[in-house]
Amino acid sequence: METVENSNPKPLSVKEWLITLLLMAIPLVGIIMLFIYAFGSNENPNRQNWAKAQLIMMAIIIGLVIFALILFGSIFAAMMAARG
Questions:
Q1: How far apart are CA 39 and CA 37, in angstroms?
Q2: What is the pTM of this model?
Q3: Residue (of 17, 20, 13) closest to 34 by Cα position
Q4: pLDDT of residue 5
């Protein structure tokens, strides 16, 4: 019979969460650490799911920003073309 490691993972302590959040505040390091936490094999499943959710939210926000830039950029370009 196979045993499953991490079938009941230990919750992260407040200290571990503080370290995680401090790392996320460092530009570029935070994004790299999100990928490590999300796809690392030895990570706590709670932190892994949190990192995956953060990456999904970042992708949604980046997509919305790109959409808004294209939309407002085209409106601005149309206004400038109508003016000239």
A1: 6
A2: 0.80
A3: 20
A4: 59
